[in-house]
Amino acid sequence: MKTQRRAFLHSVAAACLAAFCVSVQAEPDLLQPDEAFRVSARRVDARVVELEYIIAPGYHLYRDRFSFKTDNPAVTVAGVELPPPLEKFDKAMGQNMRYYTERVAVRVRLAGGNQAVKLVATAQGCAAIVGVCYAPITKAFSVPAMGGRQG
């Protein structure tokens, strides 16, 4: 009797393990954050830095999870311009969430003069297909003064 029970438990465990392995293999591989959300920055004029986020297919960035700051107290973030987002109800959050797919250009207005500055950008996104969200992603960009002038 013990042998039959042990054999039954082994077969149940093997079936569960096989089902788990199949479900793990069926999930798509998640991209690394730098692959899912590529970002670059360029100074547009003395007061504006534009960041361009390229978002991999099946991924999105949340509109309300962007933040920006500088490393220089003399140059501050005066405002952020974002394009209109997409919106959908998120059951897990229990509310409408605003987000971007494919590409989004963000303009960061600076106050304090035309000085070289390090702009620190933070964003958060998810792999929409599998419902996995990434921790906030922070990138720092060295942004030179326009025309080489300091001031």
UniProtKB/TrEMBL annotation:
Cleaved signal peptide residues: 1-26
Entry keyword set: Membrane, Plasmid, Signal, Transmembrane
Residue ranges of every copy of the Thiol:disulfide interchange protein DsbD N-terminal domain listed in the record: 28-143
Record InterPro entries: DsbDN, DsbDN_sf
Gene Ontology biological process terms in this record: cell redox homeostasis
A GO molecular function held by the record: protein-disulfide reductase activity
Record protein name field: Putative thiol:disulfide interchange transmembrane protein
Species of provenance: Alicycliphilus denitrificans (strain DSM 14773 / CIP 107495 / K601)
